Amino acid sequence: MIKNNFKAKSKYSVSSDVFVSYIKKKDFNTIMSLFSRMLNSNHWKDYSFTSEKNTITFCFYKNSLENPIYKIIYEKKYNNHRQWAVFQQGTKVRTSESLEKIIKWVESRYLRKI
């Protein structure tokens, strides 16, 4: 763990490269609080995340044995450009440089009509 950053390391046998993906601790906590709210309301049951070179993927599941309902992907394109993308059942539905906009869009899918 690095101060204010979440650090994920991966080492694959295909290549001798060791690469590191970074995400801000605040962004990681925001995503986990979204999962917590959805878990509490019984919309999601499980999550996973993977790290690849310059990319971190968060997957959210209704059941552990199914394909993910949503994927939130963080991509570091180059030094100062970062992008968030949301995939819903395999289809890219939103991209933004702001995680907050992505979270608001995902939450809007679950609003209850009274």
Describe this structure in words.
The chain has 114 residues and is an alpha+beta fold. The protein has a single domain, classed as Secreted effector protein SifA fold (2-Layer Sandwich), CATH 3.30.2440. Helices cover 23% and strands 45% of the residues. The protein contains two helices and seven strands; from the N terminus they run ββαβββββα. The chain has helices spanning 25-40, 99-108, and strands at 5-11, 18-24, 46-52, 55-61, 70-78, 81-88, 91-96. A five-stranded antiparallel sheet has the order 3-4-5-6-7, covered by helices on one side. Strands 1-2 form a two-stranded antiparallel sheet. Strand 1 and strand 2 (18-24) form a beta hairpin. Helix 1 runs parallel beside helix 2 (99-108). 18% of the residues are buried. The mean pLDDT is 82.
